[in-house]
Amino acid sequence: MDIYAIRKQKLISLIGTQRKGACAERWGMAPAHLSQILSDKTAKNLGDDVARRIEAIEKLPRGWFDSISADESTALNVGDMESEASAQTAAEQVRQMLEKVRGLTSAARDRIIAATNETSNVITVDFSRPGQVGDEVWIAHYDVRGAMGDGQVPHDYPETFQDVRVSPSHLRELGVQFKEHFHLKMISGQGESMAPTIKSRDPLLIDVTIREFTGDGIYALTWQNHFYIKRLQVLDEDNFEMLSDNPLHGPRTIRKDDTYIQGRILFVWNGQPV
């Protein structure tokens, strides 16, 4: 059993008979996020940050979510055996029902019973290349589209898309430099002015703690109440030069005191460090 399966079982036992909505509110989570973690139909896992936060709120030992006792393991095995027994009972019920069906050949009856006992032939593949256990983190992907051309009016309340599961050590191997993984978020670019470095709708990894100019690079910024993803260079004491990588889009001079940096783009999710 991997660490996320352990965390899920521990979370279920912690909630017990409590209302999920009340638990989510106490833990500072969206109820939908908690439901996704508990669901068998989604791939949302209980990440390190949320696990540590719940442990602190519930006054549990740090790492409580990451291990399982012998008694808990026995209880899980019993649950698995009960599930297997239920499946066998279902197969037996099908067999009994078929015996009452007239005109059904023995060969057809055998095929139906065999299908009842077969496991699913659906193969699931995870292409996210997670790291070793304990090295995976979730990065929130926000519904924010920075303009690479004409400016976009920024959202007051951006929505969260599907989170992205990544390995911080793998990101560093790719040349992405950051202090803490929880400083990182995902947004998207829109437009062609930063091509070929960034194509329209490419997901972008951004460090949202960088709110000042830290050297030449690509920034998410607000200028004249519009949101841009552009290169910035210092032009003089009072002005930046806002640059596009596409030669069809010329540079623009923007005043520093009218420019609000929202973060620095660290990586384009097409394998392009910036």
Automatic annotation (TrEMBL):
<dbReference type="Pfam" id="PF00717">
    <property type="entry name" value="Peptidase_S24"/>
</dbReference>
<keyword id="KW-0805">Transcription regulation</keyword>
<dbReference type="InterPro" id="IPR039418">
    <property type="entry name" value="LexA-like"/>
</dbReference>
<protein>
    <submittedName>
        <fullName>Phage repressor protein</fullName>
    </submittedName>
</protein>
<dbReference type="InterPro" id="IPR036286">
    <property type="entry name" value="LexA/Signal_pep-like_sf"/>
</dbReference>
<keyword id="KW-0238">DNA-binding</keyword>
<keyword id="KW-0804">Transcription</keyword>
<dbReference type="GO" id="GO:0003677">
    <property type="term" value="F:DNA binding"/>
</dbReference>
<feature type="domain" description="Peptidase S24/S26A/S26B/S26C">
    <location>
        <begin position="178"/>
        <end position="265"/>
    </location>
</feature>
<dbReference type="InterPro" id="IPR015927">
    <property type="entry name" value="Peptidase_S24_S26A/B/C"/>
</dbReference>
